[in-house]
Amino acid sequence: MTVEHAPRVVTCSDRAELGRAASAAAAERLRKAIAATGRARVMLAAAPSQKATLAALAAEPDLDWSRVECFHMDEYVDLKPDAPQSFRNWLRRNFLDKVPQATFHPLAPEDGPDTYAQLMGDDPFDLVLFGLGVNGHLAFNDPPADFNDPEATKRVALDETSRRQQVDEGNFPALTDVPTHAVTVTIPRLLNAHALIGSVPGSVKRQAVQDTLTRPIGPDYPGTALRTHPDVQLFLDTGSTPGSTP
Asked: Residue 245, Cβ neighbours under 10 Å: how many?
């Protein structure tokens, strides 16, 4: 029987406030992990929704980035390694170049999913920083998502909603330019973490947030998997908060 937990929801006035609040919570988690074990392992999402949080996190004081290992959730297949849309390159531009002391383990689909699974190992992440897709996906686990996937990473076909979101967010000029496949970290591996912090701004995500918080837990609404974890914080702005006006 699944034990259900209620994510702690924090509503902020705008993206900037959301970024500051989420980064403060994330930095506290990382500092505690470093103090306890001498290191911290963080799993990162790469998307425009994460920019404010990652910018603020890079500026957090008294955080020893030399003791932090960074992983990321997904990467396109058949995209040139130097393509600006590559998630590893996005993370370098928007975060990792600002914290060069951190260790970064990029996901390289050309090496095969099993290689990244071995690199991540079985230890829980100290922290997962996540977003939600318009269709409620976590990483590229589109609906229907496998909540009991035995693999840590896998190659997936992207549904049209996920691919269109990449166009709507300005990452690609047209749907035909968006890759059709990706390698993603699976939901069970993402949830193998001490804590998860989500940054989900914008009115286009409001329905995904509503579904995540209220729908029955199950594969048609991937975000509902978050309610199976005891330590999830969800940072929203007034646009993404259910029942609010943009």
From this structure: 7
CB atoms within 10 A of CB 62: 6
Predicted model pTM: 0.96
| Measured distance CA(244)–CA(241) in Å, rounded | 6
Please check whether residue 9 is in contact with residue 236, taking contact to mean a CB–CB distance below 8 angstroms.
yes
Site of tokens 């890079």: 58
Residues 16 and 56: their CA atoms lie apart, in Å, by 9
Confidence of residue 246 (pLDDT cuts 50, 70, 90): low
HSE toward the beta carbon, residue 183, CA cutoff 13 A: 23
Pairing of strands 196-200, 232-237: parallel
3-state secondary structure of 164: helix
Token output for 127: 């922290």
pLDDT digits (tens, 9 = 90+) for 113-142: 899 999 999 999 999 999 999 999 999 999
Judged against a pLDDT cut of 80, whether residue 203 lies above it is answered with yes
Q: What is the DSSP letter of 159?
A: P
Q: For residues 72 and 110, which has the higher predicted lDDT (pLDDT)?
A: 72
Instruction: Give the pair of three-digit tokens for residue 34.
Output: 């470093």
Q: What is the CA radius of gyration of the chain?
A: 17
CA atoms within 13 A on the CB side of 121: 7
